[in-house]
Amino acid sequence: MWQFRAHSTSWSENQYADEWFLTSIEARSITRYEFWNCDEGPNTLDFAIDGNYKSILLQLLSEKVYEVLISPVFSSEELTDYIANYLEDEEECELEEVIEEYISQNPNFVSDNY
Questions:
Q1: Residues whose CB is less than 8 angstroms from the CB of residue 80 and which lie 6 or more positions away in sequence, other chains included
Q2: 106 CB-side CA count, 13 A
């Protein structure tokens, strides 16, 4: 598998597909991520990202898609660094919310480091 097609919330199974993309070992072979929107009629491609799996997740994170932080490709050290460098003034969510909703779901997260 080399491509993953994410969808807007109008597709009822999008949450299951996103969770698979972020947590499965198989998804790590993906080199193209596409986001499709079907909110206003036929499916349209909103954007695509090419690269290795980790670079795709980092690009999504730079676009404030915090869900990617549940992925086990982010090590404990990377999560600790992310928390330490998180600037709430520049982000869309408070740090506590990001930790509670996403980072705490990452199997590499060690709450003692926070």
A1: 110, 113, 114
A2: 25
Closest CA to 86 of 59, 66, 112: 66
Separation CA 57–CA 93 (nearest Å)? 18
Q: What is the pLDDT of residue 64?
A: 94
Query: Distance between CA 77 and CA 17 in Å, rounded?
Result: 27
- The residue among 43, 34, 46 whose CA lies nearest residue 1 is 34
Phi-psi region of 109 (alpha: psi -120 to 50; beta: other; left: phi over 0): beta
Closest CA to 111 of 72, 69, 92, 83: 83
Q: What is the pLDDT of residues 45-91, one digit of tens each?
A: 899 999 999 999 999 999 999 999 999 999 999 999 999 999 988 88
Query: What is the residue-averaged pLDDT of the chain?
Result: 91
Q: Are 96 and 83 in contact (CB under 8 A)?
A: no
Alpha helices in 24-94 (DSSP H): 53-62, 76-85
